[in-house]
Amino acid sequence: MCGIVAAAGLLDLAPALAALAHRGPDSTGTATPAGITLGHTRLAIQDPGPSSAQPFADWPLTVAYNGELFNGPHVRRLVEEVEPARTWRTSGDTETVTAALNVLGPARALPALDGMYALAWADERTPGILHLARDPYGEIPLHVHRAGPVLAASEVKAFTALGRRAGAAVVDVTPGQWWQVTSSGTISRRTFHTLTARPAPLDPEQATTALAAALATAVDRRVISDVPVCTLLSGGIDSAAITLELTRHHPDLVAYTARMDPRSADLRCARETAAMLGVTLVEVPVEPPTADDLTHAVQVIEQPHKAQVEIAWPCLALAAAIRSDGFKVTYTGEGSDELWASYGFAYHGLAKSDWYTYRRDLIATQARKNFPRVNKAFMAHGVEGRLPFLDPDVVALALSMPKAAVQDGRSRPKAVLQRAYLGRLPDRVTTRAKVAFQDGLGLKPLITATLPDPGRYYRAEHSRLYG
Fold this sequence. Notes:
Layout: E1 2-7, H1 14-19, E2 27-31, E3 37-42, E4 56-58, E5 61-69, H2 72-82, H3 93-103, H4 106-112, E6 115-123, E7 130-134, E8 143-145, E9 151-153, H5 157-161, E10 170-172, E11 177-181, E12 187-191, H6 204-221, E13 231-232, H7 237-247, E14 254-259, H8 265-277, E15 280-285, H9 291-301, H10 306-324, E16 329-331, H11 336-340, H12 346-350, H13 355-365, H14 370-379, E17 384-386, H15 392-400, H16 403-406, H17 415-420, H18 427-431, H19 437-441, H20 444-450, H21 454-466
Parallel strand pairs: 13-14, 14-15, 16-17
Antiparallel strand pairs: 1-3, 1-9, 2-3, 4-5, 5-6, 6-7, 7-11, 8-9, 8-10, 11-12
């Protein structure tokens, strides 16, 4: 996981890279291939030595890559089928992704990548063209400033560091798309992944069995790391399931939970889960936020949305604690609520929309909300957040499930997940009703006591900072 900034032209990117230093404290690099400027700040996780430093060149391509690849051996085999004599210089995923783009071509390479990523690259065969791509679900942010010369970056603050106001000039690369951008702002878009929901005739028992297997495999795929990892444990079923699966790989696993109200049900459930699984639980105290604290949260995640800002505040405390303890990677249950439509507002949305379409669209909208918020809040302290619920097989399976196989009344909207871990996690966790993170933490009343109209405040601060 890293930070990238790129220009469709030749430009001094030093101020922008400085603004993204929190995303990549391990090293910084720039390159100017094919009339394009690429900049990179590195958080070294796979092959952390200097051989995988970026921008990474495999002529005629030079790539700035932000993310993680979870099927590296498979992608390398695809490359070797075309180029049997290839000699690999590193053990990391940066070289793998670059070689795939080069040897297979983007149209074949991008659909083959199982990972979370944002990519910027230049090709000596197409000078003056900045190539961009973003993972299928938008786990990793990638913003484009369309005023010339066109810029792309992991965070909007890279643009403001170069004296650019954001506002309407900034758009996000669409998840599952490859863009080719000229300095004048012309964008050619190609789609390599389309989010679909294909109904399958699964009964509750079949759905439960399939989900347990798919989520276990999703975690297995995501344990690759050459640095220490930890996990988040909020007290809900999502993070508890991920924590359980991780203990198969990390028997000495450390889990982090936010503590604000010592009497909260979430904290009690996190403690019970940690005790049952034998993991070390670190309780991170979260102070009631001031208005300035919430402005900082807006500044970090670059969003005005109320839920995102308020969730970001405890996440920033968690990220700081995780990094200070020496971890660079953590795991979270984000993405689960969208798969099962378990938000409170989804009850009303489903009354007006198709069960399958609604959840597909709910996942798609999080490319501008939940997923970049997770990324930016944790990367503010140089911590990568991994989301096993966004494994392609888990997403496809979940979106195929009939409502009757997923939900058990309005109070148990993710019953299929609870059934999958019945007896393997505390009964309190596998039977409790859905509780929003802010409510379980006891955060909402503290914020409204400070800000009479929080939503209006967040919108105003976002406009002041990035409008």
